[in-house]
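Question:
Write out your own:
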Amino acid sequence: MEDALSSLLQDVRPRGALFDQSVVTPPWSLQFLEGTPLALLTMLRGDGWVVRDGVEPVPLRHGDVAIVVGPAPYTVADSPDTAPRAFVRDDHRCTTPEGALVLGGDLPMCPLEAEEETGVVLLKGTYQLHGSVSQRVLSALPPIARVPLPPEGCPALDMIQREVGRDVPGRQVVLDRLLDLLLVSAMRDWFELPHAHAPAWYRAYQDPVVGRALKLIHGDPARAWTVAGLAAEVGLSRARFARRFSDLVGQSPMAYLTDWRICWAADLLAETDETVAAVSRKVGYANAYALSVAFKRTMGLRPTEHRALARAAG
């Protein structure tokens, strides 16, 4: 197991990303009703705004990246005041406000052409995310997280821009991987912003002592860790390590380890057919009973109940 951000990347990669490229001319406004839990937006050319009920409109300048969290509808437009002129639905249909299907050559939405030199170009990738690990990351983000284009540029975005205009074998796979890279790098850049209020577990990675302990826990969560054992690994006394860890992470080392094990177990139960006993051993518990006790205490339900609910939810 890796840290939470790396685990998120592993979680989304098998599901792939859907790319939408739209060339539009003002006034334009596209409302997205797909209900996906995560979307990534960037303007390959021109500027726009991201608008969502209950959230202050967010400007999206050329090269900026916006991470949109949650299934609620949102709009991307040339102005916060422009009413939606097209609706993108969960079956990937694009319709007018009257419900008519928007065809490929009809504005305000049409396929990106490599030779197109006018209008703005919106690139959107959507992700279907599931699991406790993903939620651990997404819960630390606002409904719309805007990451400005850094002064030195964004290599991943440059590579995406070159790739979208190509029609060669393997293009979609390359774009999927590049969007994975852009997603995680954008999240990391967001957490580094002064106003972002990065989660404590992310900030603690910068500490040479606690950061090493977190890497040890994530690298081998099934190991029979103790506070004394972790303290010895990082070269501090047990008391000093426990205090430093709790101060930076907001949890004791053992509470953090338990939460991470249960988080991992919850995803294994939901996404695999492994028995509860097998999952127990994989995440560091001696048997199914020990996992069940810890799982019920942390999650409020038994492992089998969690699996049944996850399967029922699809």
Residues 105-116 have pLDDT under 50 and may be disordered.
